[in-house]
Amino acid sequence: MAAAEASPSGVEFSQVTKRFVSPTGAVMTAIRDVNLSVKPGEFCAVVGPTGCGKSTTLTLAAGLDRPSAGIVRVSGLPVEGITKRASFVFQTDALLPWKPVLANVALGPMFRGQPRKKSLDMARAWLKTVGLSGFEHHYPHQLSGGMRKRAALAAALINEPVLLLMDEPFSALDVQTRAIMSNELLAVWEKLKPTVLFVTHDLEEAIGLADKVAVITAGPGTVKAIFEVDLPRPRGAVQDIRFQPRFLELYRQIWEALREEVSRAYSRVTSAGPDEGAAA
Amino acid sequence: MNAEASAPAAASDAGSLAAQARARARRRKVQVRAAQAATVIVILGAWEILSRVGVIDPFFFGSPLGIVLRLADWAVNGTAYGSLWLQIWVTIEESVLGFLVGVALGVACGVTLGEIPFLADVFAPFIKAVNALPRIVLGSIFIMWLGLGLTSKVMLAAVLVFFVVFFNAFQGVRSVDRNFVANARILGATRLQVVAHVVLPSAMTWIIASLHVALGLAIIGAIVGEFLGAQHGLGLVIATAQNTFDANGVFAAMLVIGVLAVSAEAAMEVLERRLLAWRPPLAGDSNVKGI
Q1: Which of A59, A82, A139 lies nearest to residue B278, judging by beta carbons?
Q2: pTM (predicted TM-score)
């Protein structure tokens, strides 16, 4: 529908490596030789053990940071500066605590030069979409975790991004709220069809939401395997889809790939090998 | 359904509990106020009596009644430099102007240096050097440069205020949540928009924390400036009283300054509440405020 007019915005990582230099001068490789291609309108989940550099892929796609080697392309163009028409949803929502919800959601259009009145009207409409009518003048701290997430989602979607980057957006929510938010995210996604890069460590969430799941190795992260999720769309409630045989089969396959990485990452943390991550 | 049935009972219970708590809080408030009044009466009474019977020398230590009489005399007949109100007004004017100038410059420089690390690195040693100087001595320079009028006191107050506000603004800018900045940039904010919508409001908590101290320093700056050389102001009144060994005069001017400082502090608190209205109530607040 509305998605047709948006310019296609696939994301492509080719041979992307990102190293960080710590203040002490040690070099840490976050991701190494990442190859990943997400088609326009595709929902791609990225799973991997803690500290494998999943979030780094998002900051590179957003243009917040530059790769040390390789190229990240959005809509076919190499990322330079902040990626246009992208939005980011953070794990801890980035709602400004000193602005009421309405002003927070209106930031996107305001930053892009829309008049104040129009921005606020757009924000009001979006708050209605995410079910927060009546909470326009509440401050973020006066909302529950789920409501804050809805507001953050509205703030991210108001710019009608063609690329939506989500960094463990629901991990701070309780299980029930999380299921509800997943369903709502799918509903909005099916309407607007942005390309989604969704980082999570929760495999169920990844399979329930995504078209495609990329498994990242323990740090330095690289793509270990990519699984197509051929569950039919629309998915319906994510809490029900978990019982389908195909879901369980996919879960088993992907977990097989993930398990090894998780235990590798875990043993590294517990045995505290300091130079392993810094190698290469 | 069940909850509905028991609701009225629970409500009245909660209501009477709340009423009890309020009554207790009120009683306590009255007790505290009474004890405070008693403390003042005992101290002033002892002072008055002891100075009358000659245990303490009223020439050096004054007496409460003497202070009140001196104040009344100033109010009716004026001080050596014109009416008392003029002296108060001059000191207020100097403090407030110095405060405003110092805060504006402190915030501007703190935010600029906080946002541009290169500048911060360049200026760090100079700022530390000037900050290490006892800045009161600048008062003499300012009076030489700017004369005995208003400007020299405003400058001294502003310099005192500047550093406190500057350091807090700088620290506040440095401790802005990086996610907020990243998010604003992705949403399309320009650098100035990031400063206006994210950095400045976030640093505001830090800046406001410095304003209480800064306000006190502004008054100190104005008064010390008047000590050093002035034509009007409460500092000058004190200096004159000191030179004529008029203990009552010193205390009387002190009293006026105290009232000024307390009112300024109260105004500051109102401003703080307005600017930080967005903040969640602190955990401790709920049991401090009775009503």
Answers
A1: A139
A2: 0.79
